[in-house]
Design a protein that fits this description.
This protein has four helices and two strands, in the order H-H-H-E-E-H. With about 80 residues, it is an alpha+beta fold. Helix 2 packs across helix 3. The chain is globular. It starts with a helix and ends in a 9-residue tail after the last helix.
């Protein structure tokens, strides 16, 4: 798993239900780049896409079953001190 994919997992862990647009803004990457990262994590089962109850058009991201084990092995925060 790449460092950028691990960063995505950490951001989703901090805010369950975050959208791809907001995630891309937090990471400082283009939305299409973020979408590609998320799709690989969805395929691996680390992230799932969930329709928001308040707005069924928007999709939020949540950690999948394999994500917690991966996150527990990470050496430290994705951000600086």
């Amino acid at each position: 798993m790449s460092g950028s994919q691990m960063w995505v997992l950490q951001e989703v862990q901090q805010e369950q239900g975050i959208g791809i647009t907001e995630l891309a803004a937090r990471m400082g990457v283009h939305q299409s780049t973020c979408s590609l990262l998320v799709e690989k994590l969805v395929e691996s089962g680390c992230i799932s896409k969930v329709r928001r109850k308040s707005d069924r058009r928007r999709i939020g991201l949540e950690l999948g079953p394999g994500a917690l084990e991966i996150l527990s092995r990470l050496p430290g925060p994705a951000e600086g001190i």
